[in-house]
Design a protein that fits this description.
The protein is α+β, with helices and mostly antiparallel strands. Helix content is 50%, strand content 13%.
Length: 339
């Protein structure tokens, strides 16, 4: 066995040897191995066997690949594998790729790859391919997570009550770090952190974004569960709305469709989550916090220009001073500020 911490799955030869040693492929087998891009927190590789079997191998990094220092224990790989299994029990079959192997010493797990026909939703949106049925499907998916997990509170609170990865991957890099960079927002971020830590009522994905949703026909496939925890569902809503509104800011030609999509998502979410839905005013606050964090925090949106980031920061600060309390108000007021 490769010594713990020495395995680098981005080295195809090392990965092939590792798979063979663990009985996952034949010694003489030569699978096709490809590095997958898009994430900053893990090494991620696609393995395709001659049998047609396709896997994704994911190994957590201790230092995330961003422009400033951002550290988080790679032990979160085990949390992600646990999250995948829990979500698979809550969501329709196929909505979460199945975990087929786990190695906690090497901070990795292997899951079945999504069908080759699945398309990344973020890529589609940035290309101007905006379809309301995708927003509707995403709302139903997240609503089901929040709604059905509340009915199993004792089970999931015990499994996912530790929020240390949420702290190191979200609250510190998004809220606390941004508060240092933009002191005018410090009190606003302090309130968001307090709400996220104290108002805990559902299973929160923590990374529910277009980047982590694949479109397959009319269905969605959900990926990347390392931030999953028992927490405040308003964070998931705010996190996702920051992506919707940042893209609407960046893409004027797609703006009307993106805004319609955001409101369609919200309606679908409310219908699916029912009484477990996130409080709307809290979701708005988390959305403003994430909108600012994505232009001034440790993890900034790569598609926004410097000018767009400055404009988005000014808009967020203006709305934090007595801004909207409803989702529709967040959508209209933010766009009015940046347009």
């Amino acid at each position: 066995m490769t010594p713990t911490g020495a395995l680098d799955i981005e080295d195809a030869a090392q990965l092939k040897s590792y798979l063979a040693r663990n009985g996952l492929i034949w010694e003489t087998e030569t699978p096709r191995i490809e590095r997958l891009s898009g994430g900053v927190s893990s090494r991620t590789m696609l393995v395709e066997r001659l049998s047609g079997e396709r896997w994704v191998v994911k190994q957590a990094l201790a230092a995330l690949r961003v422009h400033v220092e951002w550290l988080s224990s790679p032990e979160r790989s085990a949390r992600e594998a646990e999250g995948a299994r829990a979500l698979a029990a809550l969501l329709p079959e196929g909505a979460v790729p199945a975990v087929v192997f786990e190695d906690r010493a090497e901070h990795l797990f292997i899951m079945r790859a999504a069908p080759a026909a699945a398309r990344n939703w973020k890529t589609m949106l940035l290309a101007g391919e905006v379809r309301l049925e995708h927003f509707r499907a995403a709302g139903a998916l997240l609503g089901r997570i929040h709604g059905q997990s509340r009915a199993r509170r004792s089970e999931f609170e015990a499994m996912f009550g530790d929020t240390s990865f949420f702290e190191s991957l979200r609250l510190e890099p998004y809220y606390e770090y941004t508060a240092q960079q933009v002191p005018e927002a410090a009190m606003f971020f302090a309130a968001l952190c307090r709400d996220a830590r104290q108002r805990r009522s559902a299973l929160v994905h923590g990374d529910f974004s277009p980047k982590n949703l694949l479109v397959l026909g009319e269905e969605m496939i959900l990926l990347d569960h390392e931030v999953i925890h028992w927490g405040n569902p308003a964070f998931d809503i705010g996190f996702l709305f920051a992506h919707f509104l940042s893209k609407a800011h960046h893409l004027p030609a797609s703006r009307p469709d993106l805004l319609d999509g955001a409101l369609t998502f919200w309606s679908s979410y409310l219908e699916s989550a029912g009484s477990a839905s996130a409080p709307e005013d809290e979701a708005v606050g988390q959305g403003l916090g994430c909108l600012l964090a994505r232009v001034a925090g440790r993890s900034q949106l790569e598609y926004l220009s410097a000018g767009e980031k400055q404009r988005q920061q000014r808009a967020c600060l203006a709305l934090m001073r007595g801004g909207p309390k409803a989702i529709r108000g967040l959508v209209t007021d933010f766009i009015s500020e940046v347009a």
